[in-house]
Amino acid sequence: MTAKIIVIVFISLCLEVGVLLTLLPWVSPRLGFVDWGDNYLLVYAASQTNLPILRTAIASGWVRGAVTALGILNIAIAFWEIAHFSSAVRAIEGKTETNQNASVQQQAANLSDHAGRDERQ
After folding, report:
1. pLDDT tens-digit series, residues 57-95
2. Are 12 and 97 in contact (CB under 8 A)?
3. How far is the CA of 63 from the CAs of 26, 48, 56, 84, 96, in angstroms?
4. For residues 88 and 3, what is the distance between their CA atoms, to the nearest angstrom?
5. Nearest to 23 by CA among 12, 9, 13, 33
6. Higher pLDDT among residues 104 and 12, named by residue
7. Taking Cα atoms as reference points, which of 41, 68, 37, 67 lies closest to residue 55?
């Protein structure tokens, strides 16, 4: 049960971070948000390091695009985890595919050593 909760929390975290990283760099200041290049922490960091170019670099379209790409990657990870939910739960519970393969190999080793059609000749 806790493995399922862990996977669900991970999926929701990936979706939330992905949506924020995808949309936040492009939100206009009219909606009550501060512009991406004029936030308080960025202004403070630029003034403390004496690097005013930092604000210009962060506000550029290249950086916004890179942050958006990270957001899309997070959304893709969330959908991949949704598609492979049961295998992720099994992996957390410790029932990996290697354990299943080992049991199949053990069953195959217990079979009798009779010669097959190809081996009789």
Report:
1. 888 889 999 999 999 999 999 999 999 999 988 988 887
2. no
3. 11, 21, 10, 32, 39
4. 8
5. 33
6. 12
7. 37
What the block records as the tokens of 121 is 């000749």
Helix, strand or coil, per DSSP, at residue 84: coil
Q: For the chain, first and last CA: distance in Å?
A: 55
How many CA atoms within 13 Å lie on the side-chain side of 33? 11
What would the mean pLDDT of 19-27 be, rounded to a whole number? 89
pTM: 0.67
Q: Which residue has the higher pLDDT, 8 or 39?
A: 8
Buried b (16+ CB within 10 A) or exposed e, 107-121: eeeeeeeeeeeeeee
Residues 6+ apart with CB under 8 A from 33: 24, 27
Q: What percent of the chain has pLDDT over 70?
A: 74
